Amino acid sequence: MSRDRNEHGGAAGRPIPARLDPRAGRPSRGRGQGPAGDDAGSRADRGTAAPHRRTGRAAVVARGVAAVLSVVLLGASGWGWYLGRVAEATVNRTDAIPTAGNSDAGGAAEAMNLLLVGNDSRADLTDAQLAELNAGTDSGINTDTMILVHVPADGSRASFVSFPRDSYVEIPGHGMDKLNAAYAYGYGEVDDAATEADKQAGGAQLLIQTLSQLTGLRIDHYAEVDLLGFFNLTSVVGGVDVNLCYAVDDSEYSGAVFPAGPQTISGADALKFVRQRHGVRPDGTAALPRGDLDRIVRQQVFIGGVLRKMLSDDVLLDLGKQRQLIQAASESLTIDQDLDLLDLAQQMQSVTAGNIEFQTIPIVGDDRDEEGRSILRLADEDTLHEFFADLSAEPEAPASEAPAPPATVAPSEVSVDVFNGSGISGLAAEAAGELEAAGFTVGSTGNADSSDYSTTTIRYAAGDEALAATLAAQIPGSVSEVSGDATSGTVQLVLGEDFNGIGQPTSPPADTGGSAAPVEEPRTAADTSCIN
């Protein structure tokens, strides 16, 4: 990133409004003032605004979605219709979906990609609520929690992918920066004379464009939830069950103080739980060694607990509680102009806790940008696009019957020419002896056209598939291909450096040290194992 920024850290020529700037702490706005101000020293080093305030938004959105879902599960009753009308009448709308810069790739037409964002504004909180939530004073809007939800056309599952706020990404028109700066840039690009709603829509649109470019997916809908809504909803639902591996004490920052083991949390404690990224265990070791990444796990686990609660009989059969949830969710939700909450609920009505998965975008590791700020390096573009393409792929219809295995013949019917492409002296002769011992007929042996083959390859003429399959069965991991150089009736075996012998599988490819860290296994909403 270039250094020609103004005093608020904005791009040259257009400052980011101070209350939206996610990169610099502002003590006068309640930052760095004890527990409510988060970690002032840490933020000065990282150059970011209060990171944990946005955390609750995603959980609230999930609650809102799940609350509407319960309407559909009641059936097409008058009560369900009434609750739907309540939701539609009270929900806020914003022009969040951009007309350009939003990919056309999104899977089947009926599938849905929904961006969940948390609104950290404290404007509607009373002084008493601010104190109870350990939330400090109003610091504007921060987008420190961003989750992409994919629901396939058949509604059989839901995938939640979290984006860390410090992800170093390209923001259209602004170059490389932290992901949580995208909303602020978009907000600041709108004319100063515009309404607050138009500015917020500008922020949402640039954030969607940034994530669409990052994922290669079209983002169909947008939803954000505010801090007060999170507080109210967790109270109405009666608490959420979570399980901690260790007791934690983060009384200095988020206010989170919890014992180890299973427990039910709600209201102010729920907000502290999903905001925590500091604190220590009783033995003095760091409770959250990965900072924001561990906080994301907490968010995901909490959302999973919310969804389990929403799908339970305690909520589905309690009409009074359903009305409270619908009202609280819709009043705290801001969604795009075209999102139909009842349609969304109908699409998700077959989803169960076991097929709701939570993941985090593939990350390479921690780093520093040219300004010395702490950032997260993501996997390369091809890896990310492949990750999200797999995520959004429609479930395959079950095959009526398994495909028949390839036909084979007796080894004595297979003639093999062996070529050494491994660069290991004498390997062709060794393989030839093993082939003969296994019953194959060996024709000629010699060196391949190159000694740099990394993969053992079986080449055969069209029509000799059964011969090639017979040999391939003796070398698991080898690659078979039709070749115009192969003579009909004779199979060529080109030995690569992965060759371990006839009857032995080849060696797996060596780790090339690529940029993508291993993708963590998804966690489902049904998982109640402990976390840090």
From TrEMBL:
The keyword DNA-binding does not apply. It holds the Pfam family LytR_C. Residues 413-499 form the LytR/CpsA/Psr regulator C-terminal domain. Residues 1-57, 500-532 are annotated as: Disordered. InterPro entries: LytR/CpsA/Psr_C (IPR027381), LytR/CpsA/Psr_CW_biosynth (IPR050922), LytR_CpsA_psr (IPR004474). Keywords: Membrane, Transmembrane, Transmembrane helix. It comes from the Bacteria. The keyword Transmembrane applies. The chain crosses the membrane at residues 60-82. Residues 142-311 form the Cell envelope-related transcriptional attenuator domain. PANTHER family: POLYISOPRENYL-TEICHOIC ACID--PEPTIDOGLYCAN TEICHOIC ACID TRANSFERASE TAGU. Belongs to the LytR/CpsA/Psr (LCP) family. This is Transcriptional attenuator, LytR family. It comes from Geodermatophilus aquaeductus. The lineage of its organism: Bacteria, Bacillati, Actinomycetota, Actinomycetes, Geodermatophilales.
